[in-house]
Design a protein that fits this description.
nine-stranded mixed beta sheet, about 280 residues, single chain, Immunoglobulin-like, globular, mainly beta
């Protein structure tokens, strides 16, 4: 009797064909989603106080049209919102505000300019119509100025990179948000990320790629942020990456909001150094 020897790859292919035939769709019943409050409040010295209070939505729910019905469903109105500073309670009016520079929408507002006070804390207190409380505390950190912007051209090329130098205090643990815009601040940032100073030795340099030609205008901004805001930004980035990867583990958003209400978000002060440079040789 003649024997036929078949390669192992044949059996692997055969196995794959059978496994394909055995595949079937499985319906997974997800538990009912409970919306959470979402808070965004950035205290920028010299600017009025604005706050966004909204509700989260289910991940698999179709994204609605951006219209008045959408705003009515996602924005949380009629809450009692206030900032306590230096023993004074500053109430925020329930009023829709659009920041034309950042294009962010806020629904609570107080026409009180935030003071540049790096000593005294700011407290947030929100009470919804059911009596649930959201609370948080933050402070404004000292500005870390940009020492210099340095243009470096690639060898034998017309394109350059820009290095942003700051002086870091090695005696403290510091956290930063680095942003770089091209042309104007109302454009999409070409760089936007959080960083810490664990590997710094007194001087930190933030760089770009060799992507810029003579005449390009670049605006560098370095925010001096606290650990809570750093961790919040990092968790947002991780969550966005996980959403786009079907094999990634879910990544929760890290938030330090307190109180009796189920809420996530950020309440933080904004202090920053900023410089503009036009690329030239």
């Amino acid at each position: 009797m003649a024997r036929i020897m078949l390669p192992l790859s044949f059996f692997a292919l055969l196995s794959g064909m059978f496994s394909c035939n055995l595949e079937k769709e499985v319906d997974i019943e997800l538990p009912a989603y409970e919306p959470r409050y979402v808070v965004e409040c950035y205290l920028e010295p010299g600017k009025p106080i604005t706050l966004l209070l909204s509700r989260s939505a289910p991940y698999f729910k179709p994204f609605p049209d951006i219209n008045q019905d959408f705003l009515d469903n996602i924005l949380v109105d009629s809450a009692d919102v206030s900032i306590i500073y230096n023993g004074v309670e500053i109430p925020l009016e329930n009023r829709l505000i659009l920041n034309p520079l950042t294009l962010k929408v806020f629904n609570y507002y107080a026409p009180v300019n935030v003071p540049y006070d790096t000593v005294n804390p700011f407290e947030l207190r929100i009470m919804d119509r059911a009596g649930q409380i959201i609370s948080a505390t933050t402070r404004i950190l000292p500005v870390v100025p940009i020492d210099s912007l340095v243009v470096q051209f690639a060898e034998n090329d017309t394109l350059a990179r820009v290095l942003t130098y700051i002086t870091d205090d090695p005696a403290e643990s510091n956290y930063y948000r680095r942003m770089m815009h091209k042309g104007s601040l109302d454009s999409l940032a070409i760089q936007d990320f959080a960083a810490d100073d664990r590997l710094a030795e007194g001087v930190i340099a933030f760089g770009t790629g060799f992507n810029y030609a003579v005449g390009d205008t670049l605006i560098a901004t370095i925010f001096h942020i606290d650990k809570a805001y750093h961790d919040f930004l990092e968790s947002l980035s991780d969550a966005a990456s996980a959403n786009g990867n079907p094999f990634a583990q879910p990544s929760p958003v890290i938030s330090e909001l307190g109180g009796t209400a189920d809420a996530i978000g950020i309440f933080t002060g904004l202090s920053y150094g900023r410089k503009t440079i036009v690329v030239s040789r």
